[in-house]
UniProtKB/TrEMBL annotation:
The lineage of its organism: Bacteria, Bacillati, Actinomycetota, Actinomycetes, Streptosporangiales. Residues 54-73 are annotated as: Disordered. Keywords: Hydrolase, Protease, Thiol protease. PANTHER family: NLP_P60 DOMAIN-CONTAINING PROTEIN-RELATED, PEPTIDOGLYCAN DL-ENDOPEPTIDASE CWLO. The keyword Amino-acid biosynthesis does not apply. Coiled coil: none annotated. This is C40 family peptidase. Pfam families: NLPC_P60. The keyword Protease applies. Residues 298-435 form the NlpC/P60 domain. Transmembrane segments: none annotated. Belongs to the peptidase C40 family. It comes from Nonomuraea insulae.
């Protein structure tokens, strides 16, 4: 890895000297790195902190005591509201109304429970009033779609005051409360809707930074390692500058022409922005604070689950994947680099330091049987055509919270989050906790 030598100099004791490149490589594959990344929310927050330069003296400015910077999860939930609105072809005004409503009802915190335990999610929707099941209304995208489906039924909603539209949908005991969030909702809508997902042009130089996939992944690996170990941003920037001086990251050198220091800063910001967006979005769509808290206390299972979650979006490949990560499969998976279900499970638990084998037959016997009432994050769940016959097991997933799991489903799909269905109930064979 291009950055290991420089990064090694600042890891011990938050800035001491470690000169062994091999040691850094070892950390990236387990031990200390795996432990710190077992908390995906913490990793996302650390990466997002790298978007800005380290301490910048700023002139004192008066700010309202009520103005609080949104957390990565709040920003990710806001992005879901905006993208859902755009996906339905609705104008920005719809997103602003939805954002203001969610700010009032939950402060954009999907784990909020109100009204004596009867209202849930971003919009505090009541299952008993026809909004959907508790699982549905705590899915930010579903909750937004349901909110918007009622919004568009309001005659001339676009021309009415925000608070009137929100109140017509929510029927709140505080009908005028939504208006105070309109300015902030407009700001969020404008900022997030205009923010590009790809590397953007430097404001200082006007040069566009275009990193090749190889260079991007190299910097990303070092970024995640650095954030997980608490290495200061400035150290990573200096390390990249050293690599640039050594002729590394050729795509960055070709696409942008500022001085090396500016280019190193731009590389860190660009990669951190993209990884921050990706991690925050994945976490907010899948993990609420209660689930994150459970993950943090689940030992090796937490490490395994965090490793699997980071693979969301990787293609399914029949026979693909193993302890080292995605790989080309066999037969109809030979042309695809990715995971099948058991390959993903093997990879995830290898990150936790546990060998479970690469086939469901060995994984079924890789640990203790766990009753469904005692499931923890990372436990392996098995499904079979005949649940009473382990020889018919055909699928394995990693448990998230007893209602959701991460898995590699089938050819043509990608690693993704799944939910318990009637079919899964019928085919459930049991759970195993490796190690």
């Amino acid at each position: 890895m291009i950055l290991e030598a420089g990064l090694a100099k600042a890891i011990a004791a938050g800035g001491g000297l470690i000169s062994s490149i091999a040691l850094i490589g070892g950390m990236a594959g387990g031990g200390q790195y795996a432990t710190t990344t077992a908390d995906p929310d913490r990793l996302a927050s650390a990466v997002c902190a790298y978007v800005r330069k380290e301490p910048k003296p700023a002139p004192p400015r008066k700010r309202s005591s009520k103005t609080i910077s949104p957390t990565p999860q709040q920003m990710a939930n806001a992005r879901i509201i905006i993208s859902t609105t755009q996906g339905l072809g609705l104008p920005p005004r719809a997103a602003i109304i939805a954002l203001a409503t969610a700010l009032q009802e939950s402060k954009l915190n999907n784990a909020t429970i109100g009204d004596d335990g009867r209202a849930f999610g971003l919009f505090q929707q009541h299952p008993e009033y026809g909004w959907g099941t508790q699982a549905q209304v705590t899915n930010p995208r579903y909750a937004t779609q349901t909110f918007l489906s009622r919004l568009v039924k309001i005659k001339n909603w676009e021309g009415k005051p925000l608070t009137a539209v929100a109140q017509a949908i929510q029927r709140s005991a505080f009908p005028n409360a939504y208006a105070k969030h309109e300015t902030r909702a407009q700001r969020l809508s404008t900022t997030l809707a205009e923010r590009p997902a790809k590397p953007r042009t430097s404001r200082k130089t006007g040069d566009t930074l275009r990193l090749s996939a190889t260079d991007f992944n190299a910097v990303r690996g070092s970024l995640e390692l650095a954030t997980s170990l608490g290495v200061p941003r400035a150290t990573l920037v200096a390390d990249i500058q050293e690599a640039l001086n050594a002729g590394k990251l050729p795509s960055a050198r070709r696409s942008a022409k500022p001085d090396i220091g500016q280019l190193a800063e731009k590389i860190v910001t660009t990669v951190a922005e993209r990884v921050c967006d990706e991690l925050s979005r994945k976490i907010s769509e899948v993990l609420d604070p209660e689930t994150l808290a459970a993950i943090r206390t689940s030992g090796r299972g937490a490490i395994a689950l965090a490793a699997a979650l980071k693979m969301i979006g990787v293609p399914y490949s029949w026979g693909g994947g193993g302890p080292s990560g995605p790989s080309f499969g066999i037969k109809h998976g030979a042309a695809t680099k990715g995971f099948d279900c058991s390959g993903l499970a093997e990879y995830a638990w290898a990150k936790a330091g546990v060998k479970i084998g690469g086939h469901t037959s060995t994984q079924w016997n890789a640990g203790a049987r766990i009753p469904r009432s005692q499931l923890k994050p990372g436990d392996l769940l098995f499904f079979a055509t005949n649940p009473n016959n382990p020889a018919t097991i055909h699928h394995v997933v990693l448990n998230i919270d007893g209602k959701q799991y991460v898995h590699a489903p089938t050819t043509g799909s990608k690693v993704q989050i799944g939910h318990w269905t009637a079919t899964r109930e019928v085919e459930y064979a049991g759970a195993v906790r490796p190690g």
